[in-house]
Specification:
CATH architecture of the largest domain: 2-Layer Sandwich
Mean pLDDT: 90
Helix content: 10-25%
Structural class: alpha+beta
CATH class of the largest domain: Alpha Beta
Number of helices: 7
Low-confidence stretches: none
Distance between the termini: 59 Å
Largest sheet: 9 strands, mixed
Number of domains: 3
């Protein structure tokens, strides 16, 4: 059980959580905060158990109360430099930005990749961004994979960031992706409800994980059919890492050109249509503005590389 304010969280430990390490527990329950940052918050005394400081190795006990304070007060990530990178702004007001991220761009800095990210570009464009998730993720409310293009919302202050995070957690933000998936679908629409977690075999990958995964729901509908593939509208109800890619791969329809979760068929199709990155695009966002309560709707058309590969696929069907 947990309660939270814009810059603090309070958790009450249930019986089933006894024995779990505190840093692991918090990394699961504070989605926008990296585990390394959680460990530094613990070391900095920002995490208390029943009012006392603990180490990152502390094992939880039923009934204990964890308080996490001042999430935005510690800059534990790499120094982030503002960069004059081309930024495709779809919408902007005093509290939020909606941008279109190019494929190949990381959402935020990561070890070994501290430059040329969306955060670097956002910091150059906007001097005031939320630091609720740390300076290395300034403004970032949700993420897109490096090779996924499309729409993202960024927050300019912690209060708006918190409200948007609550909306995502409460499934009040409707996201529509376009994906080209391998194979023929037996039904025009469907829903995948399978937990997603870190793969036990390859820790760099995610997988359907019945025993240790987090609930994940992905709905889809077929927009256009081909002999060996289908163009889909995909509606992720939750926002787990690599969720769409993992779910579609699990049901036998991997995304075309997905270098991690693809198959021989999806790789073959990608080669035939000249596609070098996964065909996945965040095409539409619908949400209520966190301050004005106005309904906001944004669409981002397929980028040129995906349009060209789709046209080649269509031309191949005529032969």
């Amino acid at each position: 059980m947990s309660t939270k304010e814009a810059d603090s969280h309070l958790f009450k430990i249930d019986p089933g959580l006894s024995g779990e390490r505190i840093d692991k527990f918090l990394s699961k329950n504070l989605e926008d905060i990296s585990r390394s940052r959680i460990q530094k918050l613990i070391a900095g005394g920002k995490v208390l158990v029943d009012g006392a400081r603990v180490s990152k190795h502390h094992r939880l006990v039923c009934g204990q109360e964890i308080s996490v304070e001042d999430l935005s007060s510690i800059n534990t990530g790499p120094d982030v430099t503002a960069e004059a990178t081309d930024l495709k702004i779809v919408y902007e007001d005093k509290s939020i930005l909606v941008v279109s991220k190019d494929a190949g761009m990381l959402t935020h800095p990561a070890p070994g990749n501290e430059k040329n990210t969306l955060v670097n570009a956002l910091m150059y464009h906007c001097k005031n961004l939320s630091r609720l998730s740390g300076s290395e993720r300034a403004g970032i409310v949700h993420r897109l994979d490096k090779d996924t293009s499309g729409l993202l919302i960024a927050a300019k202050d912690e209060n708006v960031h918190h409200r948007l995070s609550e909306m995502f957690a409460g499934r009040k933000v409707k996201k529509t992706y376009m994906a080209l998936a391998g194979g023929r679908f037996k039904e025009d629409r469907g829903e995948i409800k399978l937990p997603v977690g870190r793969s036990r075999i390859d820790r760099k990958k995610m997988s359907v994980a019945i025993d240790n995964g987090r609930d994940a729901v992905t709905a889809f509908e077929v927009v256009e059919e081909f002999r060996q593939a289908a163009l889909l509208n995909v509606y992720p109800r939750t926002g787990r890492t690599h969720q769409i890619r993992v779910h579609l791969n699990y049901i036998g329809h991997p995304i075309i050109a997905d270098q991690v979760y693809g198959s021989r068929l999806s790789s073959k199709i990608a080669k035939n249509i000249g596609l070098e990155r996964q065909f996945l695009h965040a095409a539409k966002l619908e949400f209520t503005h966190p301050l004005t309560e106005k309904l906001m709707e944004f669409e981002d058309p397929l980028p040129l590389d995906l349009l060209k590969s789709l046209e080649k696929l269509r031309e191949g069907e005529k032969m």
